[in-house]
Amino acid sequence: MHEEETPEQPVTIKEEKKEMRETKKKERKARRRGPKKVPSIILEKQEEKDDERYMTIRFSPKLLKSAPLWKRSRRAIRLLQQFILKHIKYVEATIDEATGTRAKVRITEPVVWISPEVNEIIWSRGSKNPPKKVRIRVLIKVEDIIRDPEGKPIGCRAELRVFPI
Fold it and tell me: Which DSSP string do the residues of 1-45 spell out, in sequence order?
């Protein structure tokens, strides 16, 4: 009996210490604030997607220099939205839920959502000096398919979610 109890005690102490370390790590992560904290809504938005694209957007000097110094980062955000709307027009989406058929559908009503991380990257050097180029990942989530009176798909409503690479 005495021999059985001695090996169990160090194992349980080790397990307890390990559990304590894990709980402390979780508490640290939960307490973390500022730019490194990742809200749950962003994680949810990263998981749900129908399609994804990778892009590099270059804010050429002509585009940014036309804005006043104090408005350049704001102008860069607008240019980012315009670039995404210009270059992402079609998405492969499920047209019929019952059969699961997929086809290319034009995005007629896009909604651009820029993540806080991309916003931080653009505003990181202040309003006067945004980065020259940004690498992004665009996740496309089709919300609704718009149909004509015959039932054929005309277009779709989609949310374009922008994340950094």
Answer: -HHHHHHHHHHHHHHHHHHHHHHHHHHHHHH--GGG---HHHHHH
Domain segments of the chain: what residues?
1-31, 49-164
Mean per-residue pLDDT pooled into runs of 10, the chain (165 residues)? 50 79 65 60 72 91 87 94 94 84 91 94 94 94 91 91 92
d(CA 153, CA 60): 38
Residue 55 and residue 87 in contact, taking contact as beta carbons nearer than 8 Å: yes
One-letter amino acid at 56 equals T
- What is the topology classification, in CATH, of domain 49-164? Ribosomal Protein L31e; Chain: W; (3.10.440)
Q: Which residues pair with 102 in a beta bridge?
A: 94
Q: Do residues 86 and 133 touch, judged by C-beta distance below 8 A?
A: no
Q: What's the pTM value of the predicted model, to 2 decimals?
A: 0.70
Contact call for residues 123 and 38 (beta carbons, < 8 A): no
Residue 118 neighbours by CB under 8 Å, 6+ apart:
80, 134, 136, 162, 163, 164
Is the CB of residue 144 less than 8 Å from the CB of residue 156? yes
76: Cβ–Cβ under 8 A, 6 or more apart, which residues?
59, 64, 122, 130, 131
